[in-house]
Structures are given as structure tokens and as C-alpha cells.
Amino acid sequence: MAELHTFGPITHGATAGFTRADLEFYGINHFRPSFIARIFFNDPAVTIDSASADRASYAGQFAIFGHQRCSGDEGHCEVHVDARRFDERPSHPLTRAFKRVLVTDALRRYIDTPELTITIVVTCDPAEVSDAQLPLLDLHGMQLTTFA
Description:
This protein is mainly beta. 4% of the residues lie in helices and 37% in strands. The strands form 2 sheets. A 4-stranded antiparallel beta sheet has the order 1-6-3-4. The mean pLDDT is 87.
């Protein structure tokens, strides 16, 4: 199973003197099958079948170890995001994930282009999918950060 998601165009505002660029993903739902997300910059021709690290537009990738099935009692896999915590216990295992991808070299290739379109191709093993109605990539947001 595979999905293609396109975001943008966005104005990146990076200048030639930056030393590092990170593309950060917030609130990734991993109550899904495990998947790999490959990231491409300014490539309207990329498809699910042509998405590889060999493309000039390839910026990086991240993987999510999914947990699509709940094996606990009723309510076991419910994440209570509004509950305030004042202790040292780890958060719920299904709390939405954060991923950071270093995209420094890829962004340098597009430094003279003020706008950036980000395409994410998400793939997983079809045998892992139990509910084809859910999108593989479900996130709250992303941010491109550069460092001088």
C-alpha cells in the first residue's frame, strides 16, 4: 500500500549561509501499520512507483514503527491527551510521534528557489494493512527549520 501527499508551495526563507536544515514532523499517528515516508522537494513528477533515493529531488526519509492493533482491554489504547501529568512516568505508548529529518543538502539545491513544494511518498507492506480506509500518514503539522 502506498500514498502520495503534497504540501505547499511554501516560502522557505533560507539564505545561502545556513549550516543545517531540519524538516520536523509533529503529531504523527502511529496507531497504523509500520511505514516509510520518503521526502522530495519541488518534484511534481514523482510518483509512488518512481519514489527512490536516486532522484535528484530526494530530501530524506523517516520510518514509523506502527501499532495498528490493540491487544489490551477496552480503553487500553486510548490516549488521554488532556490529562495533566505531574509525575515522571513515561507518556502513553500511543502518544503521537515526532520525527526530525536532516534536509540540509536537499535545501541547498533549492536555495535560489524561494518556494518549496514538499511531496511525501508513504509506503508499507500491504500484508500489514488491516483497515484500508485509514490514511497511513496522519500528522498534526510540519516545520522547516534552518540554522545559521
